[in-house]
Amino acid sequence: MSAETGTPADAPGATSPLTVTVWSDPGCPWATLALETLRRRAGERVTIEHRAFPLELFNSRPTPRGIVDEEIAAVSEFLPGLGWRRWHGADSAYPVSTLPAMEAVRAVASSQGPAAADELDAALRDAFYRRSECITITPVILETARRCPTVDAESLAEELRDGTHRKAVHEDWETARSGTVRGSPHLFTPDGRSVHNPGVRWEPRGASGRPPVLRGYDETWVERFLVPAPRPEPTTT
Q1: Cα 122–Cα 164–Cα 97 angle in degrees, nearest 5
Q2: Listed GO molecular functions (predicted)?
Q3: Average pLDDT of the chain?
């Protein structure tokens, strides 16, 4: 259905959803903030297409828990309604890798479509940021998938056993390394619009060791991003 008119998307005059390609890592709080805002404010006006920006491959190490905890704290202090929490599970259960989660999302996108993949992506981020569940391991990924009404978890289990979509994550990494993608998150539209880490005004950790602080967050970046730039008037001679 069209979000604005309530008419079928294929009806005359209906507007097709805009595809927004989002490059991100589920372990990146800023990417998760951007995606949650985009889903809430744009709804069915957009189709989210996920691409992996695997920080652990870029940095050749797991993303340090201390950095993630500080960024989660900065976001949740400014936006407590999100319900995010620092990791409160066992230290031994902290996710050492987010590649399996990204592989699962790419697998679902390939076989079940972008809507199911986005539902799984949102659920995996919820599992990490609110539930403190280890999204590195297959049993947790599949348990999370079973909480998603549109995801066929058994089909996903077969694909994860085959490992056929790990290659897609590495291909995304190779593409991102070309320089077009600036980081996690970076959003693109088919007509060339793009925005990196939108709406955020923050101060990263300083040399004095002061933790990062989120100074402002403008959620209206979504509406500005979704409106295409006006085409230039044709010139006449």
Answers
A1: 50
A2: oxidoreductase activity
A3: 91
Condensed to tens digits (0 to 9), the pLDDT of residues 177-228 reads 998 999 999 999 999 999 999 999 988 876 567 788 999 999 999 999 999 8
- pTM of the full structure: 0.89
Distance CA 156, CA 111 (A): 9
Q: Report pLDDT digits (tens) over 41-94.
A: 999 999 999 999 999 999 999 999 999 999 999 999 999 999 999 999 999 999
**Which fold does the domain 18-202 belong to in CATH?**
Glutaredoxin (3.40.30)
The strand pairing partners of 186, in sequence order, are 23, 196
Q: Which amino acid is at 13?
A: G
Residue 35 tokens, joined:
């995606």
CA distance 31 to 222: 14
CA torsion angle 85 91 94 96 (round to 10): 140
Q: List the chain domain ranges.
A: 18-202
Rounded CA gap, 35 and 162, in Å?
A: 29
